[in-house]
Amino acid sequence: MLQRPTFSAANVTRVLKLWRTPVSDSPHMEVTAEGVAVPLEMSPVPEEDGLNSDGDYESLPAHVSVVNHMTAGAVAGILEHTVMYPVDSVKTRMQSLQPDPNAQYRGVYQALKKMVQTEGVFRPLRGLNITMIGAGPAHALYFACYERVKRSLSDVIQSGGNSHLANGVAGSVATVLHDAVMNPAEVIKQRMQMYNSPYRGLWDCVQTITRAEGVGAFYRSYSTQLTMNIPFQAVHFITYELMQEQLNPHRHYHPGSHIVSGAAAGAVSAAITTPLDVCKTLLNTQENVALSSMNISGHLTGMANAFRTVYRLGGLAGFFKGIQARVIYQMPSTAIAWSVYEFFKYFLSKQ
């Protein structure tokens, strides 16, 4: 049997004490006037500014320093160029308009195999040192400029939203800075990559070019490189952002989506701009056999002259020499660059 409650003085005092208990002293329960305890409705804890439970980090870069963007960009750029460098060496040789009979290749794998067998295991890596020296600062400026310009233009064009126009313009502006640093490194790299390259090493290459052709030789292909890289980067960034909208609409840190988006962006932009890359390679290497066959004395200069030379020696097909190697090189390279950059941006932002 249930016992009837007793209303002693002690019990009454205890009930009145509970009734007067402030809610702030009891964080999980509330006592009503009848002495009944009921649970409090808990309001959600406000999320930290710029970070939610899904790990959304895309809003964080607004508060991240330029140094962080430059650090992430430098690491991404160095890895992008070094991991796939042997394929880049093959691409340079396959773009030769009149290659030596010993440097004619049917495909990327066969080219790498032949280079290792006939010229040594480290031959595909020749010129890697200058590439690393140039890639670090070039990509640091590149990504830092891209992030800053993209954010500024997006605020104007689409009130802070994602604007494809802003992405394309930001990529193009960033390319001007990138190529100003990277162009001399590209000249030295491609001269050292060519078959029967006469240079003993990096410093010998720099000295020989400076004495024979002047300092201007390091920027002979700059206008062509910009003409190639501005549309390349515009297509690259627009494709990447479009892929991100489909694969990662909430813009969380998602390595898989960064890799796939980067690979797709690299493949599309590389294929479209291959004709300009062939012209750039000709201006950088000043291929002696090709120039002699065209009765060109001195040095080939200018994008228009490069276009005419490529067409006369190779026809329309000449503009797509090395396209397979270029796409194979760019797909993993841009996938590596974006995944590493997004990771470091996320990691540095967390710190």
UniProtKB/TrEMBL annotation:
A Pfam family the protein falls into: Mito_carr
Keyword entries, A-Z: Ion transport, Iron, Iron transport, Membrane, Mitochondrion, Mitochondrion inner membrane, Repeat, Transmembrane, Transmembrane helix, Transport
Keyword Acetylation: no
GO cellular component: mitochondrial inner membrane
Function: Mitochondrial iron transporter that specifically mediates iron uptake in developing erythroid cells, thereby playing an essential role in heme biosynthesis.
Protein name as it appears in the record: Mitoferrin-1
Organism: Cynoglossus semilaevis
Membrane topology value: Multi-pass membrane protein
GO biological process: iron import into the mitochondrion
The keyword Protease is annotated on this UniProt entry: no
Coiled-coil regions listed in the entry: none
Family statement drawn from the similarity comment of this UniProt entry: Belongs to the mitochondrial carrier (TC 2.A.29) family.
Reaction equation(s) it catalyzes: Fe(2+)(in) = Fe(2+)(out)
InterPro entries reported in the protein's UniProt record: MCP, MCP_dom_sf, MCP_transmembrane
Molecular function in Gene Ontology: ferrous iron transmembrane transporter activity
